Amino acid sequence: MGARHGWWCNSKTVPMTCKFCGDQIFWLSCDCGSSVLFDELGWPWPRHQCAGLTPKTTLSRLGPDDLSGSILSRLDSDKADAIAQLIDANIERDYAQAVKKAAKATERRQRQSAWVARQDPYHRLETTERGIITEINRDANIFKKAGVTAGAVGVALLGQFANLSLVQITIHTGALTETEADNCSFTFFVAESAVEKLEVFRGCFVVAKLRGIVISSRHPIWVCEDLTDPYS
Ligand SMILES: [Zn+2]
Ligand SMILES: [Zn+2]
Known about the structure:
By secondary structure, this protein is an alpha+beta fold. The chain has helices at 69-72, 77-90, 93-108, 142-145, 152-158, 192-198, and strands spanning 12-17, 24-29, 35-38, 117-118, 126-137, 166-172, 184-191, 205-213, 221-228. The strands form 2 sheets. The protein has a 5-stranded mixed beta barrel with strand order 5-6-7-9-8. Bound molecules: zinc ion (2 copies).
């Protein structure tokens, strides 16, 4: 039996909106490379399956043999049940219970963001952040936000972002069971084409590779060079 997933491998469970069907679902991922979408947390661990979803994303590395979703898609219900047992055995009991409890509490609170700290960059700072999209602004102006006045220096620092059609996105980080300190907000510019390709909207979960650009110290900005989601 392979090692269980949970606290030790930094498992994170995030409530999110499915970009294909709009359902409230949960994404569980960990440092081992697990990435699974569930309808509900806990036994029988119903995996989220909807028309837009490719089978490979429904199960990955939660079983001892790293069963892939392509196998899963061909399973009858008996075997699907066996996989549910496998998942149940492979997620630490106390972790599973903790996220279930946290999910219920979050539901009760109607997911009101209690306390969110905005994170600003310094120049060239790089980070990869994962979070729920809380805002998409198609009218934000990167020159204005970055405090670029006339002149080529600021424009040069923006690099390719000076010439792209951009969208400004805000995400909130923080997974179930994490403390409020982990709930941060990042606001960044990203190519409109990348957002269109992913087809994400408010409530969707994204992973954003960010880089800080500070042209004017009063106007630090983040730009996103790579945007992905748990489906890709
Ligand atoms: Zn793991
Ligand atoms: Zn769906």
